[in-house]
Amino acid sequence: MAGARASLLLVMACLSVACARRHASALNYADALEKSILFFEGQRSGKLPADQRLPWRGDSGLSDGAAYHVDLVGGYYDAGDNVKFGLPMAFTTTMLAWSVIEFGEMMQGQVQHAMAAVRWGADYLLKASTAAPNTLFVQVADPNMDHRCWERPEDMDTPRSAYKVTSQNPGSDVASETAAALAAASIVFRDADPAYSKKLLQTSMMVFDFADRYRGSYSDSLSSVVCPFYCSYSGYHDELLWAASWLQMASNTTSNYMSYIQSNGHTLGAEEDDYSFSWDDKRVGTKVLLSKGFLQNRVEQLQLYKNHADNYICSLLPGSPGFQAQYTPGGLLYRGSESNLQYVTSTSFLLLTYAKYLNSQGGAAAMCGGNAVTASSLISLAKKQVDYILGQNPAQMSYMVGFGEKYPQHVHHRGSSLPSVHANPRPIPCNDGFRYLYSGSPNPNVLVGAVVGGPDSRDGYADDRNNYQQSEPATYINAPFVGALAYFAGTASKQ
Fold first, then answer.
1. Catalytic one among 64, 102, 146, 472?
2. 34 catalytically annotated
3. CA–CA dist 196, 186 (Å, integer)
4. Which pLDDT tens digit goes with each residue over 202-215?
């Protein structure tokens, strides 16, 4: 026990000085924050507003849903293609909203842009949720056809098929995440736009009831078009509990949703430990979110979630009895070869959010065996991950496009890699675009703020458009990073 405690204390001491003395230069977190939000304007689908700040993008997908007599214009393209996938889009919206809820006061001049990013996603999810009774539209475009082309979104001529879940073909996972997104967004707009906030919350309740009443995975209902792209590998139980937790937060009631959590938590994953948080698996995010109710309001029924949130924290700390994580030689959290930075940004966000909850109670700590891990230790670990992404790493490369002196030039992203519609207004057909995919030239349009998939387990990175596992950005990588950057931008401004 003494050896384990000494090892853990050594790790904490290392983290507290950031273990990166060779990179002493200060990072401009405010600049990174601004860019991280700007990225979402590059992912917009639909009619672009007059204040669009990435000028190389144009209108796209203006007839989405028309063939089905519904309006599905708007929303976000999830990554480097031109498909609107509902599950990652809803998770992106939830995480953008959570970023504003926890760290909006630290965003300074960027909070309005962050709220605009939330609204762009929420507006689309409202349309998808209210087009027909007991129906949720969850995807626009056939991904198999879309991936056969390398086209700008403004030129799309592949099928814009619309896919839905219904009471006969359920999708509790995507419906619950949609409910979570709408509930979280309702909190963001509670003061700024009460009528909009009320509509979001009422729709969230309706969609959650649909998700809970007609249970099933959308991967079963729509397997040919959502798999292998965004299969719900974790099932739908985690999303049901996640959505109920957000509705409890948003509705300010202690009856319906708290009762649901208490009655159903044990069958929906409350007692399961998992060590990643992503568009697919919401278990640890739910533990952290619900721990707030225990730490700040002493809701005893929620102590279980605080205990399991502690288990998650312990899994990240070398020397801890529950250590589970893997780190690269350069110190980056490593979970998988494809789009690893999604786990790094989501983990950093949870560390900072949990630290905030702990700090709200003065001396509260996460317990790892017999050791108390303070909020400052969580902040130090999060900072190391954020700093690595922004350039303090063995390659001395920023993995955020447009940030720093050295960043990815060959991003796996159609709109960024092809000449813009303003520079080349003639359509570039499906197959003609592939010469730009295979070109060795840098992308002509800078997708400012995009965080790419990131380096491998040995800190190696191939700046290669064809290596999508490393070079493709995604909205769900950036969304939690907005909150993490807001925290460090806010604290830096006070120093």
1. 472
2. no
3. 7
4. 999 999 999 999 99
User: Strands, DSSP E only, in 330-375?
Assistant: 366-368, 371-373
At residue 89's C-alpha, the angle toward residues 84 and 92, to 5°, is 150
Domain that holds residue 66: 2-493
Residue 120: alpha-carbon gap to chain centroid: 15
- Taking each helix axis as running N to C, give the angle between helix 256-264 and helix 237-251, from 0 to 180 degrees, rounded to the nearest 10: 150
pLDDT digits (tens, 9 = 90+) for 210-267: 999 999 999 999 998 999 999 999 999 999 999 999 999 999 765 689 999 999 999 9
Is residue 273 annotated as a catalytic residue, yes or no?
Answer: no
pLDDT band at 109 (very low <50, low <70, confident <90, very high): very high
113 is catalytic: no
CATH number, position 438 = 1.50.10.10
Least Cα distance to 264 among 353, 185, 169, 172 occurs for: 172
Q: Which residues contact 194 (CB under 8 A, 6 or more apart)?
A: none
146, 412, 413, 459: the catalytic one is 412
Please tell me the total count of domains within the chain.
1
pTM equals 0.94
